[in-house]
Design brief:
The chain is an all-alpha fold. Helix content is 61%, strand content 0%.
């Protein structure tokens, strides 16, 4: 389960246009991978999948996904 959307990437992680030239498939994959990283930390404390979460988790996932997208 992804904790963020492509729209969240721009709202919480990157300036508009920062991912020009990077396909939406790659953006979605980065969000999924970042969500998996978050799950690896969360599963030690919470039952997954989470049913509710806030912008703090979305922002963390967006930061991980943005870093992966712009650093590769």
């Amino acid at each position: 389960m992804a904790y963020a959307t492509r729209a969240d990437l721009y709202r919480l992680g990157l300036r508009e246009g920062a991912l020009e030239g990077i396909s939406t498939d790659n953006q979605d994959a980065a969000i999924e991978a970042a969500s998996d990283v978050a799950d690896s930390y969360l599963r030690a404390r919470y039952t997954l999948p989470l049913t509710s979460y806030g912008d703090d988790l979305k922002r963390a996932v967006c930061a991980i996904a943005a870093w992966d997208l712009v650093s590769t």
